[in-house]
Amino acid sequence: MKILFVCTGNTCRSPMSEAIARKIAIERGLTDIEAASAGTSAHDGAPASDGALLVGMERNMDLSSHRAQTLTRDLVRDSDLILVMGPHHLERVEALGGGDHAYLLAEYASRGADIRPISDPIGAELDVYRATADELEQEIRRVFERIAAERAPGKS
Q: Is 12 a catalytic residue?
């Protein structure tokens, strides 16, 4: 299963989400889950933001090799699940043909009970990046719970 995380610049929220998802997949022994990220307005090749790099280091997640990539029709097509940070990201994914497997991150994690966006920490203090990473980790753990429940024997 390939999960694609989408934000605007692909330097803060989505690369942190990608790293968190990889960490959780390893913790759970889910070798069939692949995480990637992209941005709706990314500058291709840009590194993760300093705040994302620092928060990643604090959490034993190395984002130093991350390079931003622009969301494309191919990325959308090749992903099984697309989780976006805000409504405008969802609109872009839908325009690229991914409306049937794209969701707001919080909405998917809560099975539709929570439709709020994830705020962009770009340019903010390190504490804001930490709070964003905490929020992302909480939501992504709930995503993995949902995936596990849907994979459970007897589920259709």
A: no
Split into its structural domains, the chain has a count of: 1
13 carries an active-site annotation: yes
Q: Is 120 one of the catalytic residues? A: yes
120, 130, 142, 146: which one is catalytic? 120
Per-residue pLDDT 10s for the chain (156 aa) are 999 999 999 999 999 999 999 999 999 999 999 999 999 999 999 999 999 999 999 999 999 999 999 999 999 999 999 999 999 999 999 999 999 999 999 999 999 898 999 999 999 999 999 999 999 999 999 999 999 999 888 754
Question: Is residue 82 one of the residues assigned to a domain?
Answer: no
Phi, psi (rounded to 5 degrees) for 31: -75, -15
Q: Whole-prediction pTM value? A: 0.96
Residue range of the domain that includes 145: 8-69+91-151
